[in-house]
Amino acid sequence: MNTVKIPEILLPANADMHKWAVNACDQYTSDYEYWREVENLTVGSPSAFNLIFPEIYLKDQPEKRISRINETMRAYLSGGVFKKICGGFILVERTTPSGTRTGIVLSVDLEDYSYEAGAKTLIRSTEATILERIPPRVEIRKNAPVELPHAMLLYDDPQNTVLKAVSRGEVLYDFRLMQNGGRVKGTFITNAEEVTSALYALLDGRREKLLFAVGDGNHSLATAKTCWENLKASLSEKERENHPARYALVEVVNEYDPALNFQPIHRFVKTDKADLFFSGLKTSGKEFAYIVNGGIKTKIPFSEDIPQGIRLLDSFISGFIAKHGGEVDYIHGESDLVNLTDGGVGIILPSISKKDFFNLIISGGNLPRKTFSMGEGYEKRYYIEAKAIKKD
Question: Contact, 102 vs 166, CB < 8 A?
Fold first, then answer.
């Protein structure tokens, strides 16, 4: 089994780490002020901000930004900005108000990953992939010499056997993150082979072989997969075996980590026909949700099969908008949703349970789009580590 690979990791050699690490590119996609502040904080300093494409700018002269990103990547590689960390993984301990979340940075084989619904691969997406979101990301990645991951993969380890196997070495970084991101510490793992064996052992005795489920960064990983499929057609069988683009750098986290919070993503329908929405929506089940209008919450029944309940709700919302107009938005915080509902109808959804998560993926395939989020925006993975994806 070669799903997990020990990567050659690139870390800043002498950078101010507070200025180096920035939040995931798919966060704060309507908040220009957030990203302007990041730019102001990092100007004139080596920073991951110069190597990523915040999605808020996807329609703002993307070709120029992509070209600048690729030039900066090459300059950082040739200019001694990076140092190489070889022969092991990195243990990442991220402290936020939710607690300290512990993950492992390693590489995974994209040959063992699929975002297709119903896939039986060892690595699977958890949400339906929006195919039209992949091409612009391919444009960003296809000529990039390095990747920086914000993808977080989950593994199912209720006994915490993987982290118990870890042997700690040198502390590689320990610093405060910008923009209220908390604190992060990275420690070299000296026994990567034993940790890999502990991960593979999670599959023992399981009829359905699922090692990792994508928690965050599904479209990022889907883009890496697409780029690899496009590239490997031009490679010989031998060249494919160890090409750096075949392996994606990720952080893997135990789904039972106490600081990892599964939070529902609520629905908000912008409409002036709230009464019609109320009268048309029919739900049932032993679980419950809330429908909200004008700040007033009303409890409604909801399916105990939460993903199926969300599918039915989303189908109703799509049909309602097609007939009566309006727009749907996806809101992470319950209080944020309630504050919006003078302008429409909100639906506060229940959260899926950690203990049910892997079984839901195994039995039902991809969850509906925007079913859950892992923590708040400031708790998402910050870019720190990098890996080459081009041959020297």
Answer: no
